[in-house]
Amino acid sequence: MDSGFEYYQVDPRLSRRDRSGRYPANFVRFPWYLRLIGPASRLPALASHRLLCLSEHLPPLFDRVQPGADWGTAEQIARLRDLLLHYCRGIDDNPHISAVGRLMIGQMARGYLIARARTVRFFDEHRDFILSHGRFKAPLIVTGFPRTGTTLLQRLLSEDPATRAPFTFELERPVPPMRSGDDPLADPRIALSEDNVARLRRFAPGLIERFAQSHPYSPTAKEESLLYVQLHHGLQFLSAASAGRSYFHAINRPEVADGLFAYERNLFTLMDAFRPAASHWTLKAPAYAPYFGKLFEHYPDARVVVTHRHPGRNFASVCRLLETSVLPFDRPGAFDKHRFAALLQDTMRPFLSAPLDWRAAHPEREGQIIDCHYTDLMRDPVATVRRIYAHFGLAFSAGFEARMRAWLSANPQGRQGRHSYSNAEYGIDPQALYQANRAYYARHGFQAEPGAAD
């Protein structure tokens, strides 16, 4: 298969008669009035305004606020703006995204860019208090290839009463922040998040439910910090493939992390100033993995957990998760599972190689890093967390263990339903996956073909 294509989609005319399942139908049925957007946008009176052109509407929102030096150098901030423009142009130039898809992608990005502007302004207005009271030191960070247990592990680690991990509603709308003594479950931002979900269910029925089969969503769950930091800059990871191969490669480049980590440090310093962590912050995001070396430049005292699962067992699961994030916005019949998987195998290689290469070059940092294998986590999650805490010298309390066991009892695996998937479905060749990532397989004891224990 040619691996040099920019977009994973194909002309729907090519897939019209295919019955193999390679070109899945959209599982979202948009309301009739949204389906009218496509024909309406071609009317002369509306087409001239380019209402669905992201590159005209999103960069000006980024420019509404001019952050000071605390938020990164001018070069680092300009790099993020350039990447936003790259994303916008990638979406604008993709002929396979529907008009409804363009509208929804643009509207979601607008909301997060507005959240960024409000966060920066709030920080500047309360700078003295935040800098004198906020403490963001030695964070415990979970990262690794997606679908390797990062979410389960982070949510267990977050049950420690001594830690602080960000709620989804906090990441969606960081300000005004929670204060010490506030009841998190009474925060008014929860209702705003629930209203947004209700609108999404109304405008895109089935989207939330299908996504929840891979990654349950809740405003009061602990969520992916860096994913939201990217979103605040208008940058998408979950729909990166829709913007094309070149954008997907660009968002994973290490130099992008400088501006993102400067923003993230300020974000959690702000949150900590008003509601401090008793011991440490616990963060999680697979998106940290391509920036692995930058983690220790910006957080030299970080404690990092890297999760692992056999790629031959895991990669199809990643394809299904990300398919759920982009298929609803494609033109009918355009999504190609085989091209999608081929693009992901290319663009997501740094998630495996960046931590591996950096660790080989910096053995002196191994005391700050611990590996967590998916099979161990699933076999005994509490023992896995105990081992992580022992490695980093963190206090493991009986209350912490009790809270983890209560969480596991209330959240059995597959509670939201399960995806089914296979390598054959996505045209994934386990041998080719092995050849492309041989150093990673060797480092973690994986054979070319996954075994029953993987």
Describe the protein.
The protein is mainly α. The chain has a single domain (12-37, 51-412, 422-443), classed as P-loop containing nucleotide triphosphate hydrolases (Rossmann fold, 3-Layer(aba) Sandwich). The chain is built from 24 helices and five strands. It has helices spanning 12-15, 32-35, 37-41, 44-47, 54-62, 74-92, 99-125, 127-133, 150-157, 168-172, 188-203, 207-212, 225-232, 245-251, 257-274, 292-298, 311-326, 337-347, 350-361, 374-379, 381-392, 398-410, 430-436, 438-443; strands spanning 140-144, 163-164, 280-284, 303-308, 369-373. A five-stranded parallel sheet has the order 2-3-1-4-5, with helices on both faces. The longest helix has 27 residues, at 99-125. The model has no long low-confidence stretch (mean pLDDT 93).
Order of helices and strands: HHHHHHHHEHEHHHHHHEHEHHHEHHHHH
Number of helices: 24
Please state the average pLDDT score. Answer: 93
Number of strands: 5
Integer count of domains: 1
Q: Which sequence of strands runs across the widest sheet?
A: 2-3-1-4-5
**Low-pLDDT segments, ≥5 res:** none
Broad structural category = mainly alpha
Major beta sheet summary:
5 strands, parallel
Measured between the Cα atoms of the first and last residue, the distance is 28 Å
Say what the CATH topology is.
Rossmann fold
CATH class: Alpha Beta
Query: What does the radius of gyration come to?
Result: 22 Å
